Give the backbone structure.
Amino acid sequence: MLYSQNILQKKYKYLFGVIAVVFIAVICFAFNETDNNSFDIAKREILLRSIGHELLLQSGDSTSRVLPIKNIAKNEYEIQFEKSFTFQPDTLVNIIRRFLSQDPRASDYVVTVLNSQNSSVIYGYTIAKNKKNDAVPCRKRIQPKANYIINIKFKPLQISVFDNKYLLGSLPLFAVLAFIFFRPVQSQKHLPKNLESDLLELGRIKFDVKNRNLIINDKTIELTATESRLLHIFALSPNNTIQRNRLQKEIWEDEGVIVGRSLDMFISKLRKKLEVDPHVNIVVVRSKGYKLEITT
């Protein structure tokens, strides 16, 4: 009787695993490509900054700044400028088309040029994947010098659930999930208790993840949100190399567009705060990334 119950429990466990895999498969088919992909969003914002930079160069301005890109709504962005400039619509259209051609999600979009003083619409046009639906008026009329805002709204991406390439791309994921669900429970490994806690030990330093503090000899050193996130990534893989692109991608989610020099700056500040323990240091792994090195 007990044996039969065990068999039944195992069957229920496998049935649950199959249901879970099928459920996740449906989600993968429906949402495999989403507009919330942090890497693609970051790449798009860099392209938008490049558009602003090129517009200023075309107007003869090589010194003033393109202000931070604003994501004012889902699929809608604003490019703002430090100073006034003039532009010709034809040049604007060509510059935006050239840079957005590098974004596979940007086949359909609406561009509106606003006067930042009164939010009035100065110029606008639409671009469609079907060229017959393009609407680009008044391309040759030079606009007067003013402080403009470029608003670009992208058409939401529509993805077919039955697209074969996404089905094939999801097969490796199904195999991994099946292995996780169907392998014996005893073989599943858990993180060490140290890594499950909010208090991580790094040499003689205690890292309070929740409160973003370093504690050593009753001394507390505060960390910024970005420094804490960086250190948490390192602390989960001590003495292992962390790729630069992984750090940039994970920090992008909350920090917006970040370039290599900004990452180096955060690493430098974090390294200085870790100097309280000479056995803990963040070292550069040439051509790869960084490593939290903990020696005894």
